[in-house]
Amino acid sequence: MLKTVIIVIIMFEVLIIGHELGHFITAKKVGIKINEFSIGMGPAVFRKQKGETLYALRLFPIGGYVAMEGEDDDSDDERSFNRKTIPEKILVVSSGAVMNYLMAVLVLVVMIMMIGTPTNSLRDIDEGSPAELAGLLPGDTIISIDGIETDNWNDITGQIRSKSEGDIISVEIKRDKAENTFVKDIPVMKNDSGNMYIGIFSRYEKNIFVAIKQGFINSFELIKLIFKSLEMIITGEASVKEVVGPVGIVSVMGDSSSYGAAYVLYLTALIGVNLAIVNLLPLPALDGGRLLFLIISGITGKPVNPELEGRIHYLGFMALLVLMVMVTVKDINQFIL
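Given the sequence above, the corresponding structure tokens read:
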């Protein structure tokens, strides 16, 4: 359990550091004065002043922040946040979520490079399966099924699973390096899991360019999954009781670690994408809340009172703390007691 807790803390801190680095780098690029870049919360255990910025490492590894001049108050400094244009402010505020998303894609790419990506070439054939009886061999490459071209392994499995037991599919095969292809008629059967199958297994390859492409594809799937979950909570199809906090994540991470590093990386990517999406929700204290005020300022042509906005974000922050405590208590009751 202690090992899992340490892994979760490191994972969260890496994601949070990446988030804050996104704000920090972008703010520097547009010329905003950074008063402090802090990792962690609470009392500082390490402080170093470098130029105009104080860099601090704080006691509790549960967050971090970038303190920009004029972010929550009206500053006369020409390099303050409140003196920048609306597009520059939007760029700075959204950069944290963008960094979390890119980090999630990077984690997915690493995961894919670890396990490889499936190809249309066959690694193995189940003994006694319809594919073996039809004469398919390891090394064969599937070109099409029922005349429909198969661009990737998902096309193959998708077409097979869409059939009914006993259906005959025409599988176009290319063998070795031969120029010609040939077609095999193969009956579809149901396996022990209830899925349609013909008994073929893909050969995996490790290609960085394929991994990058697949990393982005998988990240889009995670985004759709998160929005679907939010929709289900809003419509009542799912309960807010299913939402987990840090304690719940420790439990889930502990369970997932038994499946190997790839599964842990996938869960890390999911959390990274989730942080990006949640941070962009138009709620006070979140980046999305700040973006909402910036959009209002852009539409009205008048800046929102910095002190009023600061108070709203403070109240939102307190509400988030209360919510975090409630979720943590629920997780303790569910996963520990």
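The radius of gyration is 26 Å. Try to locate this feature in the token string yourself.
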